[in-house]
Amino acid sequence: xxxxxxxxxxxxxxxxxxxxxxxxxxxxxxxxxxxxxxxxxxxxxxxxxxxxxxxxxxxxxxxxxxxxxxxxxxxxxxxxxxxxxxxxxxxxxxxxxxxxxxxxxxxxxxxxxxxxxxxxxxxxxxxxxxxxxxxxxxxxxxxxxxxxxxxxxxxxxxxxxxxxxxxxxxxxxxx
Length: 175
Hints:
Family: Belongs to the complex I NDUFB10 subunit family.
Region (Disordered): 1-23
Radius of gyration: 37 Å
Distance between the termini: 118 Å
Keywords: Electron transport, Membrane, Mitochondrion, Mitochondrion inner membrane, Respiratory chain, Transport
InterPro entries: NADH_UbQ_OxRdtase_su10, NDUFB10
Subcellular location: Mitochondrion inner membrane
């Protein structure tokens, strides 16, 4: 690099940005409205939000561990207690959805076992096949033949009729 460099060709930028001179004495309305907004709207909202977050941090609530209380079964509801009927119906629908998911999970496990074992699936996946048979039989016993419009009342009547048939078969066998 040459010792005699031309400093005029490579000027150094100024160290401080020059301040622009105001041409008017009227304050900027945008800055005024921004300041008013910050103090009137933003500061209280931010304060309330931070206070709520501090309160929630004290009481951590994990929604995925929520446990619903069991409502009375339809057979336990009093006559004319329509709220109890509604809650029992909602509980029955939740139970049916849970049972459907259980059947689906067991079915997926069996499919994964068959995929993993290949030709040896019949001997290595026997426990999964047995479990699927038990789960689907239990599901069919409880919810089978109810149709799309099945509800808690028809399911309860189905279970009652099945119990009566079992008692009759037991009485006939003991005679």
